[in-house]
Amino acid sequence: MLLPWVALFAFEVGPAAGLAGSVIAFALYAVVADDLNVTPAFVTGRLASFALIGIGLGFAGRRLRESERTSRRLVEGLPLAMYIESEGRLTYISPQIEELLGYPLEAWHSDPNLWRRALHPQDRERVVASYSAAVAAGTEFECDYRLVGPDQRTVWVRDSSTRVDDGKRPYRQGFIVDVTLQKESEAAAERNATLMRSLMDGTVDGITLTDRDGRIAIANQPMRHYARELRIPNEGLMHERLLGIADTVVDRDRYTARMSELAAAPDTESFDEFELHETGRVFQGFTKGVLGSDGEYLGRVWTLREVTQARQVDRIKDALVATVSHELRTPLTSIIGYLELLGTTNTPLGEEDARYADVVRRNAVRLQHMVEDLLFLARVDGGGLSLELDRADVTELASSAVASARPLAAAKDVGLEFEGRRSARVLVDAKRISQVFDNLVANAIKFTPPGGSVKVTVTSDDAATVVSVVDTGYGIPATEQSRLFERFFRSSATSHLPGTGLGLAIVHAIVESHGGSITCRSEEGEGTTFTLSLPMDPLATRQGGRTASYAQTPDLREELQAVKH
Known about the structure:
single chain; alpha+beta; 5-stranded antiparallel β-sheet; 18 strands; elongated
């Protein structure tokens, strides 16, 4: 009868107490039992049995208590509150609940309704109904809701529990995790997403974001509106959808080629303008790749803007400029002619009158040049630019332009240098190309302060002749370089100098009409480099769709005929 008590004592207290209890129990056992045949073997065996039971259960109890303490420390060290509920009452909750919400641990055990009272009023009905349904069905429960602490602070938690049936009395075990920061981050992300959508939908331009394969991820409201109006297909990759309206575009071949190029090289940046057949509406399309912080290609942004009204204004403006220019040409010619006659009669002009007349003549000539520039651009727009093609040495043309500009450079104290070997004879309109060189060299000198330098270099190979004009002048701000070849555009860095902003537009038109290209590289305060490339045969390599007509000299016609035969 004593042995069970010894075992229980040893289990609860430990192995030492178990050994002592075993010895006492054996002694009492030996005293009480009169009929025992007490021999040394009996004493040794029975005492050893008592001792083994006491010590063994003592060690087992200690290990169990240590394991329980370890488990409790582990549980109470987790960043969550664990709880056990049995028959609708809370039987255990870990101390973390006090730090999480603010109610003392005792309050949770003493107040059965504390959890329901702590629920946020806007969440209470929903959460209680969901939890009650899970308890009734014996299923898992998981829910995000808000708890309100005694100091009225609100904490978002995620509550997860499940039914445990150990064969005796089933209970519900779960844990509560603080997810306030996560909820605040989600709310901030949602607000930012809403702001971003509002920003995109509030723009005039249609904007679409596609993934790396061309699938549409985001399309703002203007883009969806354009898609409906232009009848862009609703399915397929972005470039496939845009190809669906190719037949409605005026320059179908160029439009199709661009879409194919974007499909083949998705990270290529592009800018295009196209017009629709039936409506005459004009759109500009811009695309740019989206790169990650490591340079990985992630997708592409597509922007669509309607410029129909702007192009109509441009046409009206161009027509007005052309008309006014035509009307100004005749009276200007007469004014300049009569100014040239002043002082040539028997009554010469006085010194002061001659100076006044010279000022009038110079300004009239300047105005005449402006009128000629405007008429030239009007002819370009109307497809009336005519090139008289012949074989010419571009190096010689550039050298002549430099030689003509030397007096201007010397008067301004700007160094002027030329470098170039005799190049192959290129098929060009020598007069127009000379106009290009005169304009570029004069601009370089004009926009270079005294003490600076200008260098013209000519190189050539079998495909093209390349001319560069490098100056150490004022430079052009990076934000303005894309507009350099626009008509009437003048850089803010050189706005203090006289000019019309037409020279580079004319240069660009002439070079493009020759099938060539011109680029600009500039750094503000450091200088500017214009580089133009002229192909050997402009008839085979015309770019940009620039309209021009070509004529050949008799010598060139004979040369071409000889080549054909």
